[in-house]
Specification:
heterodimer, A: 178 residues, alpha+beta, five-stranded antiparallel sheet, three-stranded antiparallel sheet, B: 593 residues, seven-stranded antiparallel sheet, globular
Chain lengths: 178, 593
């Protein structure tokens, strides 16, 4: 994430304050969002393409027949929507690492903002796909006792920071009593 | 002794809360009747033992597989089956089962198949018996464990400090045999992995286990729960009448008929004249669906079916929570209910994450409601575990809640409910038009489809009917607006009221929230809309089954959700601030999951 200074003055309470580290997508992260969207779009295009081909061969119609073409068109539309998501979504994407919580803000038409306190995190998953490794990014999934939060395209240093803060806020539970 | 007396004679005394040390149970083998649970998973014919407790329809399936292979339709059956309902069942099944049974009938006797089936059945019984034999359990003041395995050894161990609740359960058969099933529940959202269930434990041993576990929980509780412990005497808090239960069950579709139940019901209707009724109904329905314009009949049929399930649902609800009693003993809520299967639950009160006060429309009219507790690891289908009070007049229910928690939580809750903050009038439109926009949108889509396509034609009356649903949608939204309210009290307990069909008020100490957030419409070139604040407690559970595969990180369900729609952003921010960790609090806040 590109490092952006937090603007402290006149911030609403749910906005990160001065002691928060705010991250908004830089060029690396935007590139990841675009590639991620492309891969997801292509993945969803496959079943449409298969149905298109099956239709053509099964019913012995031409490749330009309107029905199979419409099916393929739907798949391409889906791909286009994914690409659009990849371009627009990171514009409002924001991660803020605070002293007690981590916050993720996301959304296109509706903005959603989620806070998870470090002392409520039960488990952390660290994910790294080949594209992420190539771009030197990582993904964190924070699990609480009521669902979880996924933080895409995070700088490994930030991921380590979140992880260390979670660790610092956990209780020491003796597994077996002495 | 009368059957009724026989069934009631073994009701155990609910948990003793003494601090006397009780001898631990170490590696005790299972009772012989626990073989029932091992054998009933026999894959052939669904399990011989299960059939004893299932309904006659399933027995008919066994008869078909047993005799149907050897006797054609109309052939001579053994004399003990002739001219009986069972002959009808065999004839019916043989007529209806189609080509597979035809094939079997034409190759009527396969000794090798019979031998293979018998061998598989016998080896399964032997394996399951050995598994039963090798399984042992133990309970001490630190752990509950069960272990076993013939070649592959396994063990499940649950630390006492992670126990959320403990339940003794007895079906009518268990009660006759003086047995109990004992279930220890942890906070894991995966119910199957989270629970240790010991079937067929002699009642005396079950009470012994209960004493060990509940005695051991004293030491694990934080000192701050001393207030609860200060009142060690058993206090009866509530018992519920059948009329109150019916009022509570009137909108409860939460207890559903199982697939086996539906199958059994189908087969019950395969006897004598009931069979004709059933077949006539099925034929009528199939024919009706085939006739394109018989929409009204299909609607009628669906309504009758829904009404039937509704009545069955109410009956199930009443049977499940019949003879309900709630008592408190120190830090324990002792709950007892059930007509056929009787349950005795001991819930550790400090483990309760939130309390929901639920009012069905009938209860609202009668100024009553039910109380449910949200426990970590509970999920949408665990109503039996969540029920605290099925139905009581509103004042009594809230007073009971205050007495139950002995002032530790939810003090003055009845008074605070009157001090709610309401959603501002500017959000009324958001509430009232929510369903109107959606219903009119759907009607518009249907009209456009009808107009644009040569093949798709809708009945105009149906489209008009759908559009007219916008009127009740408007009034429903208005009611939702009127009911929406919240309050964060001085003890940092968040109280949120929201309406679906039932009115639901959830009360939760802010420190027990697992995560929180808000959502706000931010359309381009328009002023940002009002905010919706959402927070979840640990009792939210996760989506099971297919959903779990798709949404890997889990998706909280509404049971443990606190949601306030349509408040100004500034208020949402202030509320989120109050809900989160406070600067004067230590970095780790205990949340007793």
């Amino acid at each position: 994430m590109s490092r952006t200074a937090a603007t402290a003055d006149e911030q609403p309470a749910s906005e990160p304050g001065q002691d928060w580290i705010v991250r908004r997508p830089g060029s690396r992260e935007r590139r990841w969002f675009r590639m991620h969207a492309l891969i997801r779009g292509l993945f969803w295009l496959i079943p449409f393409a298969i149905v298109y081909l099956i239709w053509v061969y099964w019913f012995e119609v031409g490749f330009s027949d309107p029905i199979p073409l419409a099916i393929l068109g739907l798949g391409l539309l889906l791909l286009l929507l994914f690409l659009l998501w990849g371009v627009v979504y990171p514009r409002k994407w924001e991660v803020a690492i605070g002293p007690r919580d981590v916050m993720v803000k996301r959304g296109i038409l509706a903005t959603a903002c989620v806070f998870v306190s470090y002392d409520r995190v039960q488990q952390i998953d660290k994910v790294s796909t080949p594209i992420m490794s190539h771009l030197d990014l990582t993904e964190l999934v924070l699990h609480s006792a009521a669902g979880g939060m996924r933080i895409y395209a995070l700088d490994p240093a930030d991921a380590d920071l979140i992880e260390s803060r979670v660790r610092a806020n956990q209780p020491i539970i003796p597994l077996i009593r002495q | 002794m009368k059957l009724r007396e026989q069934l009631h004679r073994n009701d155990p005394i609910l948990a003793a809360n003494g601090n006397d040390s009780v001898e631990p149970i170490v590696d005790r083998p299972l009772h012989w009747f626990a073989l029932y649970t091992y054998w009933k998973t026999l894959p052939i014919t669904i399990g011989i033992v299960t059939l004893i407790s299932l309904l006659p329809g399933v027995i008919a399936v066994l008869i078909v597989t047993g005799f149907g292979l050897f006797y054609e339709f109309g052939d001579q059956l053994p004399s003990f089956l002739e001219n009986t309902v069972l002959q009808d069942a065999i004839d019916y099944e043989l007529q209806g089962a189609g080509p597979i049974l035809d094939q079997l009938r034409h190759n009527r006797y396969h000794p090798e198949l019979t031998i293979i089936l018998i061998l598989v059945a016998v080896s399964w019984i032997v394996v399951r018996t050995l598994q039963w034999k090798s399984t042992v359990y133990g309970v001490d003041n630190e752990h509950i464990w069960i272990q076993g395995g013939i070649y592959w050894k396994w063990e499940r161990r649950l630390p006492i400090e992670r126990v959320q609740s403990l339940e003794l359960r007895a079906s009518w058969l268990d009660r006759i045999l003086d047995l109990r099933a004992v279930e220890f529940v942890s906070a894991s959202p995966d119910h199957n992995a989270a629970t240790i269930r010991l079937a067929a434990i002699p009642t005396r041993d079950a009470i012994h286990i209960q004493q060990i576990v509940l005695g051991a929980t004293h030491a694990d509780l934080d000192d701050s729960y001393g207030e609860l412990e200060a009142q060690p005497d058993r206090v009866q808090l509530a018992s519920i009448s059948t009329a109150q239960l019916i009022a509570a069950g009137i909108t409860s579709f939460e207890i559903k008929m199982s697939f086996v139940g539906a199958l059994a019901a189908f087969h019950i209707f395969s006897k004598s004249y009931l069979k004709e009724w059933r077949n006539d109904l099925i034929h009528w329905f199939v024919n009706t669906v085939e006739q394109r314009h018989a929409f009204a009949d299909v609607v009628d049929f669906t309504l009758v079916l829904l009404a039937l399930f509704w009545i069955l649902s109410i009956i199930t609800f009443v049977a499940t929570f019949s003879r309900f009693r709630l008592e408190r003993l120190g830090h324990l809520a002792l709950i007892e209910h059930g007509l056929v299967t009787r349950r005795w639950r001991a819930v550790l009160l400090p483990r309760v994450q939130a309390i929901t006060f639920l009012e069905t429309p009938v209860q609202e009219w009668r100024n009553a409601g039910s109380l449910r507790m949200e426990l970590a690891g509970s999920h949408q289908n665990s109503l039996e575990r969540k029920m605290l009070l099925p139905s009581l007049p509103r004042d009594q229910a809230l007073a009971t809640l205050e007495r139950l928690f002995g002032g530790f939580f939810f003090e003055n809750i009845a008074q605070e409910l009157g001090e709610f903050r309401h959603v501002p009038a500017t959000s009324k439109r958001m509430y009232t038009m929510f369903w109107v926009y959606r219903i009119l949108g759907l009607a518009a889509v249907l009209v456009v489809l009808d107009w644009a396509s040569r093949d798709i034609k809708f009945e105009h009356l149906v489209v008009a009917g759908i559009a007219l649903l916008a009127i009740p949608g408007y009034f429903y939204g208005r009611r939702q607006f009127k009911d929406a309210a919240w309050l964060m009290n001085d003890d940092r307990e968040l109280i949120v009221r929201e309406r679906h069909i039932n009115r639901r008020t959830i009360v939760c100490p802010a420190d027990r929230l697992q995560w929180r957030g808000f959502k706000q419409m931010t359309l381009p070139y328009r002023k940002p809309g009002t905010a919706t604040v959402v927070a979840f407690v640990a009792a939210s559970g996760k989506v099971d089954g297919v959903g779990k595969g798709i949404i890997g990180i889990g998706w909280p369900i509404i049971d443990g959700r606190l949601r306030i729609r349509g408040i100004p952003r500034a208020e949402a921010d202030a509320l989120l601030e109050q809900m989160g960790p406070q600067s004067d609090q230590p970095h780790y806040r205990p949340h007793v999951v």
